[in-house]
Amino acid sequence: MDPAFHEARNKNFKPKAAPPTANDPRLSRFQRKLYKNPYAQALATPVRVCTLSKTAVPKFFLQTFRIIAHPDTGEPFYVPASRILQDTRKALKENESSEPTVQGNRLRGSSYMLARKSLVGSMYDLNSGYGKHPFTYLIPHRARQNQELCAIYYKAIYRKDMADFIMMIMRRRITEHLRYLMIERPFYVPGLDNLKDLRQPARTAAFFWTGCDDSPPPPEFSEINGKPFYNLRALLGDENMAELQKEILGAGAAGSILVLKTISPFSKPFIALKHQPGTINLQLRLWWLQGYIAEHKEYLAADVSAGRQQQEKGFRVRKE
To answer: Are 52 and 112 in contact (CB under 8 A)?
Structure first.
């Protein structure tokens, strides 16, 4: 029983070591900053290809779809399965340890689509350019080699309100996270009365416009001192904003029945989000949601005007 022999034979069966954390002493200062940078984390995700547009981008910018069976009828349904949409407050060991099955068959692979609301909602649009059966694009390449799996994918149901459903889930996750910070970590989301107060030192990750005063909303993609300036009301909607602006109820002194009410910081016109480990996931979700619902009106208007100028210039050349 040579231990070297068994070590060589079992070296490929050892469990994979856990990835280092941001506070791992083995990491350099630059590596620790990368771990704490949400944009670096998003760009470091594996590259995948959108099945509709054939665009290769980091997985963070894609919406993942899987097929699971309805718990009552057993019918296959497309469900959004991106990790960023999952509830981080609950244990997800069951979902991570087993793959979704439909009527006893294991489904292999996932389908990817650009995380754009207009694209996700275009599956039932005959003028989208993807033909009468765009759902065939969602069948993974490996599943196409199995007739039984292909039959399941062809029968799978895709919600007509899938685009709004995904937006609702993400809005709910961001609202829950902000509500948690407002109650447990209020110094992470301080409220500000004046736009001049937004010019704060470092350790600020982003700024929010809540729409609680007469100040104009920021443009779709706006920055202050290199930090994103989000229109929180446009991102979350009026219903979620009303929930965040409710008064916070807290207990009084020990042994008393007094209930203290604290004004929500989201009743202020502006919010400064601090850059802390507890806000990194929130920053990722805000960036994801902004890109998901973005309309890019300013950029489209600039492209149209530039195209008209080139067209007019071309006409002038022809006349000459």
So the answer is: no
